[in-house]
């Protein structure tokens, strides 16, 4: 952990310290390290908002440990977070054992009748069902040695277009690895197809629209960090085959340089939710999405949206990752749920 070069070249997912924001692809090189005493002249440059955020992170890390490089300061922060998560994992494991051994009914979190221990055990058995021999064979073949560029799966997905998954992409699902854009987009594409089939097939109006991982990169590109025209045509009826604004929800996977999070725009309830398996918050991102909602209604329906009727939520009662590499999996499962 803390290998900054690795985190920025092969789809890294290490949890970032507060203030890190970088949307989109995984191929960018690590930002230049700030000097211990940056001059005002060096800071006053024509940086975009995301570049400025990266620079600010480097400066804060250096100031926090004047004798150490920024990379070392980040390493210390990651180590602290992972140690905290490991302790929480042990606590949860102990709590699970107590729960399954108790004959009493569970206390429901928010009304309704709680499930008893037998129901919990049955639920776990279903979710953790063993793979079939055929599934094992497919996994073994996909993860075996071979040409990294070999295409193992491909398809055209609802709202995503044509996608391919290579042996290299499959390798990002190995223990301790970090999911890359291709793996996430293929997964999101399958969810989009499933939603289309549930709602009547291609051409039908779905309840949920799924963006790919490049949406926020395009939307938040530019000196002011927001360019609506870059994504304006992504949601036309001609392109999608349906009306995105008629959906109940919009699912948006977001890559923040070395961490995956999920944003959900709930058009029905007028809420923007930010789901993070490390319980972080990114208020500039949610502000950008509110602005996008207003621009979408203006552009597609010529309607002015009163954003005072909308709210932003950062749910804390979500499943949490207990290591430094599973945020991509948690993000995908948030979207699945």
- List how many beta strands DSSP finds: 7
**Total helix count?**
12
Global outline = globular
Helices and strands, in order, run as HHHHHHEEHHEHHEEEHEH
How much of the sequence is in beta strands? 5-15%
Percentage of helical residues?
Answer: 40-55%
The rounded distance between the terminal residues' Cα atoms is 29 Å
**Quick check: average pLDDT?**
78
Structural class: alpha/beta
- Side by side, the strands of the main sheet go 3-4-5-6-7
Q: What value does the Rg take, in angstroms? A: 22 Å
How would you sum up the major sheet? 5 strands, mixed
List keywords for this structure.
337 residues; alpha/beta; five-stranded mixed sheet; two-stranded antiparallel ribbon; 41% helix; globular; disordered N terminus
What does this structure look like?
The protein has 337 residues and is α/β, with parallel strands linked by helices. 41% of the residues lie in helices and 11% in strands. The chain has helices at 4-7, 40-43, 49-64, 70-101, 117-127, 133-143, 167-171, 181-198, 215-219, 237-240, 283-301, 327-336, and strands spanning 151-157, 161-166, 208-210, 249-255, 260-266, 271-275, 311-313. The strands form two sheets. Strands 3-4-5-6-7 form a five-stranded mixed sheet, with helices on both faces. Helix 8 (181-198) runs parallel beside helix 12 (327-336). The radius of gyration is 22 Å and the shape is globular. The protein starts with a helix and ends with a helix. The relative contact order is 0.13. Residues 1-46 and 103-113 have low confidence and may be disordered.
């Amino acid at each position: 952990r803390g290998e900054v070069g690795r985190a920025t070249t092969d789809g890294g997912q290490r949890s970032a310290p507060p203030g890190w924001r970088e949307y989109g692809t995984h191929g960018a090189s690590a930002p230049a390290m700030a000097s211990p005493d940056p001059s005002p002249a060096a800071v006053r440059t024509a940086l975009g908002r995301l570049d400025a955020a990266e620079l600010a992170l480097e400066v804060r890390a250096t100031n926090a440990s004047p004798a150490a490089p920024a990379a070392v300061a980040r390493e210390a922060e990651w180590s602290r977070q992972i140690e905290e998560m490991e302790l929480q994992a042990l606590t949860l494991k102990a709590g699970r054992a107590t729960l399954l051994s108790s004959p009493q009914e569970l206390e429901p979190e928010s009304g309704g009748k709680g499930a008893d221990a037998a129901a919990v055990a049955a639920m776990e058995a279903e979710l953790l069902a063993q793979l079939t021999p055929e599934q094992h064979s497919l996994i073994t073949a996909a993860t075996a040695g071979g040409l990294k560029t070999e295409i193992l799966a491909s398809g055209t997905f609802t709202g995503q277009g044509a996608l391919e998954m290579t042996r290299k992409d499959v390798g990002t699902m190995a223990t301790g690895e970090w999911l890359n854009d291709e793996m996430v987009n293929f997964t999101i594409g399958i969810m989009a197809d499933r939603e289309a089939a549930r709602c009547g097939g291609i051409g039908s109006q779905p309840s949920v629209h799924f963006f790919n991982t490049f949406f926020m990169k395009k939307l938040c590109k530019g000196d002011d960090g927001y360019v609506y025209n870059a994504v304006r045509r992504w949601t036309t009826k001609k392109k999608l085959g349906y009306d995105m604004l008629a959906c109940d929800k919009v699912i948006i996977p977001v890559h923040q340089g070395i961490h995956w999070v999920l944003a959900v725009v709930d058009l029905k309830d007028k809420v923007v939710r930010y789901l993070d398996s490390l319980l972080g918050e990114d208020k500039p991102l949610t502000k950008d999405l509110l602005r996008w909602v207003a621009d979408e209604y203006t552009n597609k329906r010529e309607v002015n949206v009163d954003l005072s009727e909308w709210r932003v939520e950062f749910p804390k009662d979500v499943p949490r990752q207990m290591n430094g590499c599973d945020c991509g999996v948690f993000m995908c499962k948030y979207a699945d749920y």
